[in-house]
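To: structure subgroup
Subject: Chain for Friday's discussion

All,

I'm putting the inputs and outputs inline so they're searchable in the archive.
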Amino acid sequence: MDDKNRVYIFDTTLRDGEQVPGCQLTTKEKIEIARELEALGVDVIEAGFPISSPGDFQSVVAISQAVSAPVICALTRANRKDIEVAAEALKQAKRPRIHTGIGSSDMHIKYKFNSTREQILERAVDAVQYARKFVDDVEFYAEDAGRADDAYLAQMVEAVIAAGATVVNIPDTNGYCLPEQYGAKIKYLKDHVPNVEQAILSVHCHNDLGLATANAIAGLKNGARQAECTINGIGERAGNTSLEEVAMVLRTHQATLGLTTGIDPKKFYAISGMVSDMMRMPVQPNKAIVGRNAFSHSSGIHQDGVLKHRENYEIINPEDVGLASNSIILTARSGRHALRHHLLRLGYDVQKIDMDEVYERFLMMADEKKEIGDEELRSLVSGKPARA
């Protein structure tokens, strides 16, 4: 594998994802998810924000003990106390990373920090240099980079790499950018930061305008090589970039993009359900990749096409993401082909059935019910009413 084409998957389900109101996890639940993330093949697990609470501190310690393959990352602000607490929490991690940073947009510099560009640059460099005293792997985040001035952002990226940052995160913190804008920002940094090849650029996109996955892919196309994501796209406000979407875009368009990950997509469906259950955060039915309707077909035209040749209407094999098969849902919009498919599945000899008559009765029943299940199908064939 060409390392230049390898995209590292950074999962922040347990940190950024957990910021959703009502989605807090116990340490035991975090460990269970972390182990599944390790099995999924993520490269980095952001385990928490240690200084924020004793529970978060303990979770970082426990996850550091529980998993060994991924890098274990802890978030901090650009101050020494945060960094010291994160370093303490990561002491037992086999591959520790401190993730520190500060605002990079003029809006954040003025209204969040009441500071100047020069002072913020000094704080950024100091934070990275101090973090490097504790760990060899330091990631710097330039918060609100999506709205930052490109020239100043390039100056900041150059300075933190010189200070020892191994990864530089370019977050579209508010989900503001269009894909071409975000991609151009990454390209600008690749073209204007003299020491950019000494670090990995990372994409961290939010979904406020529904563009998180598109922006992340645009950043990767322009030279970023780490993608920060969450399972099910969970996260603050409208959510983060969805891990399963990024991984399957790269897999589906591997011939075009030439980018690979170490992710095992067959584990997506199971871990999606686990995160949804533990965080009490339902997955919308039409969610890409893992929604319950993602591989369901109810239109008669689509059902007929899928039954003739799956790829007529499916660009992803459901088995590739951990589903046994697609679903042909029987509704009033279903055609004869779908009805025949389900009768064969139930063991009926369709040669001995008057399909025209059964189909007419099926349409009348389907007009009254949203979906037709196996028991109703049996009643249609037998002529006896289904049990209530």
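Points worth raising on Friday:
Residues 117-132 form the longest helix (16 residues).
The first strand starts at residue 8 and ends at 11.

D.
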